[in-house]
Amino acid sequence: MLRITEYIKKTLKGEKIKPFPGVILIWNLTNVCNLFCQHCYSSANTVRTGEPTLEDIKAQIPYLKKAGVRYLILSGGEPLLREDIFDIARLFNESGFITTLSTNGILISEKNIDRIKENFSYVGISIDGDEETHDRFRGMKGAFKRSLNGIRLVLQAGIKTGIRFTITSQTYRSIPYIFKLAEKENIPKIYFSHLVYSGRGRNLSQAEKEEYKKIVYQIINKAFEYVEKGIPIDIVTGNNEADAVLFYKIFKERYPEKAELLYENLKIWGGNQAGVRIADIDYRGFVKPDTYFPLKLGNIYEKDFYQIWNSNGILSKLRQHPRPVKGKCEECSFLDICNGNSRSRAYAVYGDYFAEDPECYI
Fold this sequence. Notes:
The chain has 15 helices and 11 strands.
């Protein structure tokens, strides 16, 4: 994730950032969902076969620690459909992990808000546009109102929260609305996720390249506006590390005297972290370099997480810096801050994990 607002603030103060000290693990605890979203990377449905039990999860705790996992994002499907979700979160918290929740927000209610506050340090809730756009994209009439109600409950409870928006050709026109919504509702964070061609997302498309670049300009410029006006909304983007290059170029135009420090901070950040500081376990126990990767590294029912995470093969290549990427990425002068961008998108389009990223707009 590219924490644009944070990097603007720290660079303007003359500070160097600190890379996250460990591994961030997304654990898809279930594939069951109460929505049918067009972009769902896991193609969530009603199948529960293979879900890890509380004991399965508990058995992996020592190996997660040994592998350097510090931060857990509990996701799905819809994780709040698991009856034991709070028991799982408590287990992680008591074991010393930072535990967060990724949800569509529909099941957040006055009945469970206290347990959510007790067990999660952060809650990310998906909103993909205005009411009409969101409901169409998520496959349920009334989904927007219920998700917005979930956001309001989380904010009222004093839980750190943010909204997640996926940029696609169907949703990008709603970005101005998303900014207005965050400002009106005092939502402190917006995470813009770029589309990765995985699951049902394989059937979607991104905006045309020039339009796509304008979209990212819009997002980055809004981050500068928020910082310069003192508006307390953080802007973060993910799944297209070309954003760092555009961010650097815009920053250099605005603050040329600080541009070198920003570039150093972006190098510390390191670009795409799939297989490096990002890991995923799907609902059947398969470990992947990130949530979108079609390649499975191993299964926790056969080997423990530490063994899988320290195996060779593609992980060794993902952990090279810069990565041995091909095409225009190979010769790009910004490879050291982008790290080759999404290997999942490269594979989806070219059938090669180390081909150029087809959605690089630089």
